[in-house]
Design brief:
By secondary structure, this protein is of the alpha/beta class. The protein has a single domain (2-229), classed as Rossmann fold (3-Layer(aba) Sandwich). Helix content is 46%, strand content 13%. A hairpin with a 4-residue loop joins β3 and β4 (52-55). The longest helix is centred in the C-terminal third of the chain and has 21 residues, at 150-170. It starts with a strand and ends in an 8-residue tail after the last helix.
Length: 237
């Protein structure tokens, strides 16, 4: 299994953070009994001091460089990732995509309908590169703007409806798609540190949502254990 994390600022993370990618790595090491590799063209965090994806200062310096791989970027969404995904899947031979995108698209670039079209283009390009690729897609998790701005909140809801339809329309036995659930217990004041980006609690909730979908549908790993993802020592992988 060759896993690639695809996402925006919530996935790349910032200097000094663990990231939900790290929590997922811990979970897989603790519960998955098959070989796997985390792949992707990038490995750094966003550096707020420079505004560039140049930081290697993860909260756990023992997070191996190989496990830090991803395709995520601050300010990047479905609009940006759809043109990239085919070449990246092909180059890194990814077969399992864990995708968290959409909030930045709706906030700055595209409406719900346009964003949903980019989802479909993303899936088509990934499959052109790897016909049996599978993916777990996270709905947009409302942030403080979605709560305060009713029009933006409605656009987020509309996109999530279209995302669910796209997953239902496009999933096939050969190339299955899963729609993850918005994490249970996601409370903005506790799950984020600024109203959008995940706190350590939010990181564990995000990892748990992806892990739960993979375990229930595909038998990957075991049930998500928050105590593992909160810092207990696990073997390197």
């Amino acid at each position: 299994m060759r896993i690639m994390f695809v996402g925006d600022s919530m996935t790349i993370g910032s200097t000094g953070e663990f990231t939900w990618r790290y929590r997922m790595w811990q979970h897989l090491n603790a519960t998955f009994d098959g070989p796997y590799r985390i792949v992707g063209p990038r490995h750094t965090l966003h550096d707020p001091a420079t505004g560039a994806p140049a930081s290697t200062a993860y909260a756990d310096p023992g997070f191996p460089e190989g496990a830090r791989r991803h395709l995520a970027g601050w300010g990047e969404g479905w609009l940006h990732m759809a043109p990239l995904i085919g070449d990246v899947v092909r180059r890194y031979e990814a077969d399992t995509l864990l995708v968290s995108l959409g909030l930045i698209d709706l906030g700055f670039y595209t409406n719900a309908g346009q964003t949903a079209e980019n989802v479909r283009e993303f899936v088509a390009r990934a499959r052109a590169a790897a016909p049996h690729v599978r993916a777990v897609l996270m709905p947009v998790i409302p942030n403080v703007r979605a709560v305060a701005d009713t029009a933006f909140g409605a656009e987020c809801e509309r996109f999530n409806e279209l995302l669910a339809k796209a997953v239902a329309d496009l999933s096939t036995p050969a190339s299955p798609l899963l729609l993850a659930s918005v994490p249970d217990g996601w409370e903005i004041d506790r799950a984020t540190y600024d109203g959008t980006h995940p706190s350590e609690r939010g990181e564990r909730l995000l990892a748990g949502a992806f892990a739960g979908a993979m375990h229930q549908a595909w038998g990957v790993g075991g049930p998500y254990r928050a105590e593992v993802a909160s810092g207990a020592a696990v073997p390197a992988g």
